[in-house]
Amino acid sequence: MSENPLLAVTEEGVRKITFNRPDKLNSFNAVMGEQLSAELDHCAQNAEIRALLITGAGRAFCAGQDLGDRDPAKMDGPPDLGKTIEGTYNPIVRRMRALEKPIICAVNGVAAGAGANLALGCDIVLAAESARFIQAFAKIGLIPDSGGSWLLPTLIGEARAKALALTAAPLDAPTAAAWGLIWKAVPDDQLIEEATRLAASFASGPTVGLGLTKRAIQAAASQPLDAHLDLERDLQREAGRTPDYAEGVAAFLAKRAPNFKGVR
């Protein structure tokens, strides 16, 4: 068994986070959840980190909750799964959405249950062509959590969302991309290379503006157009005052590559 269920390293502004329980298909346990929450806080507070890349070790991305830790047969009474969600998964999802830095997910194998929905909660999802997404909850009498019951209909519509959730049928990466559930399916041997290249481009980009863009797009689902136009105005005002905007304009006019700093 892996001694550290989560590995993290920073290279050139990119924080690479790897789920590291390959013997358990990177299924989530309490320590892994605590470490991921701490990592997201660290990334939010560290200006040197300008983009995140999340992937899994071995042949899976994440198989979801480790059911061995939530087995009713080993407990005195029924488990309080709402407590698990409120204490572990919901805070992680909220941190991911609130983080104004791009989060790229490289799904290298099966992503099931909460593992699938944490992947889908990232900003850009690349998946190996052999990867599969499984809303496995129906197989054990549960509902999609970790934002799944919101993400699925938001991304692919009610009909497909219900079908995936009620049947727990595996969805292959190329179909997930065709449906708009993820951004792109790539050949297995190119996944990490392409994800790393994308993360590096974000880390060297105008990251304040990218973060504001993330905020604006996420807000669109919860407000009418009139209110959203006001939000666009306010965020554009903030973006226009950044050094990166001045640098971007100067570079454009001088016909040279910009040197963005990612600072306000």
Q: What would you note in describing this structure?
A:
The longest helix has 18 residues, at 81-98. The chain has 264 residues and is an alpha/beta fold. It has a six-stranded mixed β-sheet with strand order 1-2-3-5-7-10, sandwiched between helices. Strands 4-6-8-9 form a four-stranded mixed β-sheet. The chain has helices at 30-45, 81-98, 114-120, 148-156, 158-167, 173-179, 191-203, 207-219, 225-240, 243-254, and strands spanning 6-11, 14-19, 51-56, 60-62, 103-107, 110-112, 124-128, 132-134, 171-172, 184-186. The protein is globular. It has two domains: 6-203, 2-enoyl-CoA Hydratase, Chain A, domain 1 (Alpha-Beta Complex); 207-254, Lyase 2-enoyl-coa Hydratase, Chain  A, domain 2 (Orthogonal Bundle), CATH 1.10.12. The model has no long low-confidence stretch (mean pLDDT 95). Strand 2 (14-19), helix 1 (30-45) and strand 3 form a beta-alpha-beta unit.
Kindly state the mean pLDDT as a whole number?
A: 95
Q: For this entry, what is the oligomeric state of its chains?
A: single chain
Distance between the termini: 43 Å
* CATH fold field value of the largest domain: 2-enoyl-CoA Hydratase, Chain A, domain 1
Q: What is the name of the CATH superfamily of the largest domain?
A: 2-enoyl-CoA Hydratase, Chain A, domain 1
Under the CATH scheme, which architecture of the largest domain would be assigned?
Answer: Alpha-Beta Complex
Total helical elements: 10
**Structure class:** alpha/beta
Order of helices and strands: EEHEEHEEHEEHHEHEHHHH
CA-based gyration radius: 19 Å
Number of domains: 2
Q: Largest beta sheet, briefly?
A: 6 strands, mixed
Q: What percent of residues are in strands?
A: 15-25%
User: Residue ranges: pLDDT <50 for 5 or more in a row?
Assistant: none
Please report the total strand number as a whole number.
Answer: 10
Output the CATH class name of the largest domain. Answer: Alpha Beta
| Helical percentage | 40-55%
Q: What general outline do the C-alpha atoms trace?
A: globular
Q: Strand order across the biggest sheet? A: 1-2-3-5-7-10
